[in-house]
Amino acid sequence: MGDYTMYFNKWQGYYLEDCECSNCAYYQGKKLGCSLEKCCCTEEKYEAIKSGRIKRERGIAKWDG
Fold it and tell me: How many domains does the chain have?
């Protein structure tokens, strides 16, 4: 990258919607559910709640509670 390169949409963390079971690699569908005993996204869920990144709406995080 050059000296005059601009970065758009910098990574700022997961939204709570990103940590749903249906997006997980270990999720096997509605009938079988998750193949893990504990959720592997627990830390990301807590970080999303803690930082207020609850709901994604046109790039803006909104709190529903």
Answer: 1
